[in-house]
Each structure stands twice: as structure tokens, then as C-alpha cells.
Specification:
alpha+beta; Glutamine Phosphoribosylpyrophosphate, subunit 1, domain 1; 4-stranded antiparallel sheet; 3-stranded mixed sheet; 11 strands; 22% strand; globular
């Protein structure tokens, strides 16, 4: 099922990048190659099935290390160079120590029942993006789609980065406490949360080219 979902997501992502003209004539191969190389970084897939199973998977190439494992064609990521994963500085961890990750593929359980499978790309914004989506679902009873598409904010250590859509009174109060940076539109900077519920409701984050689909096993 996970393979089927990934194939469907890939197809829809291609449709999102390509126009009908790109899919005809001699330009087809060139167009598909552009799709394969246009996006990198982090991707996430969430899956729930009719039998109550759920899976949440995040994988990342980061910005890439430039090194491929010989004989595999696999390029290693650059998590050794992510500053938020090395608060004590680079090159100080002992050999063999497992590197932490900012990725957080998750299952939201309510009364021991799976309520949502979700995860996100977005580096340092992953955790704040996911927390806000979970809060929207649990505290404000939003649907997965509404929760994902709602505006977000992120504290970067110096400024509160804010998407449009929050109440003006709340932003005025926030600006009185901390420096505020208002973004004109929703942006991939604020993560890309992809979430799905066991009842078939789901959302792919439009900030990051996400898609949601219901597949018939037959």
C-alpha cells in the first residue's frame, strides 16, 4: 500500500509541475527529467488503511553531502552540517555516536486510537509546523485539510515569523512583545505537513506541493 501511495503522489506531483504541452511530442523526456531534478530536500508520506494500520515516513537528503555510497547510487545527506542538531558545535561528537534528527514522523493517538498520521519537511520549522497542525486538530476540532492550510508562525530565535491569516489584534499584541516579521503569503519556509486520518480525510500541504488521495486496493 505504501508503494502504491508513493507512486500516486509522484504522479500527481508531476501533473502539478507539467503543462499539457510538456506531456506531448519530443519534449516529454526532457520535461519528466525536469520534474525528477526540480525538487530536493525532505519529503514525507503518511498512510492509513481500512484495517486500522498507519504509517508515517519522513526521509531527507538535506542539501546533500555530495558523496555517493560506492556501488549504490545513493547520495548521503548533510545532517552532520545542520547546526540545530549540533548545539555544542561541529566535529565534537565522539565516533560512532548516532546523529539526532529534526524530522518527526508521528502518529497522533487519542484514547489509544490513531487520529492522524503526519509529518513534515522544513528543517528547523518541522516541529513548530507539526505542533500547530496537531493543535488545530485536537484543540480547535479542525479537519486535517483545514488544520494543514491554517496560517502558521515560527520563532527563529530573534523574530516571530508569521504567515498571513491571523487576527490583527493578536498580531498587534504579539508585536508588542517580540519583533515580528510578517510574510505576504504562505510559504514553504513554514514547513510542509502531510497528514491523513483513518476515515480517509487527508491533506497534502500546498506550501510544499503536497497531495492527498484515497486509493482503492482493487
Amino acid at each position: 500500500l505504501l508503494v502504491a501511495v508513493m507512486e500516486e503522489v509522484d504522479r500527481r506531483r508531476a501533473e502539478g509541475y507539467l503543462s499539457p504541452a510538456d506531456l506531448s511530442g519530443s519534449g516529454l523526456n526532457e520535461s519528466m527529467e525536469r520534474v525528477r531534478t526540480a525538487s530536493g530536500g525532505t519529503t514525507h508520506v503518511s498512510v492509513c488503511d481500512a484495517e486500522g494500520n498507519a504509517a508515517s515516513m519522513t526521509t531527507s537528503n538535506g542539501e546533500g553531502s555530495g558523496y555517493c555510497v560506492p556501488g549504490t547510487g545513493i547520495m548521503l545527506n548533510n545532517m552532520m552540517g545542520e547546526d540545530d542538531l549540533h548545539p555544542e558545535g561541529f566535529h565534537v561528537s565522539p565516533p560512532g555516536m548516532r546523529v539526532a534528527s529534526m524530522m518527526a514522523p508521528s502518529l497522533l493517538l487519542v484514547d489509544d486510537q490513531i487520529r492522524l498520521a503526519l509529518g513534515s519537511g522544513g528543517s528547523k520549522r518541522i516541529r513548530t509546523a507539526m505542533l500547530q497542525v496537531i493543535g488545530n486538530v485536537v484543540d480547535f476540532a479542525m479537519s486535517p485539510r483545514a488544520a494543514v492550510e491554517a496560517p502558521r508562525l515560527h520563532w527563529d530565535g530573534q523574530h516571530a515569523q508569521v504567515e498571513p491569516g491571523f487576527a490583527e489584534a493578536a498580531l498587534v499584541d504579539l508585536a508588542a512583545r517580540w519583533p515580528l516579521n510578517r510574510w505576504p503569503v504562505q510559504d514553504v519556509y513554514f514547513g510542509g505537513v502531510h497528514a491523513v486520518a483513518p476515515d480517509g480525510q487527508g491533506a497534502g500541504d500546498p506550501r510544499r506541493g503536497g497531495h492527498a488521495a484515497v486509493l482503492d486496493r482493487a
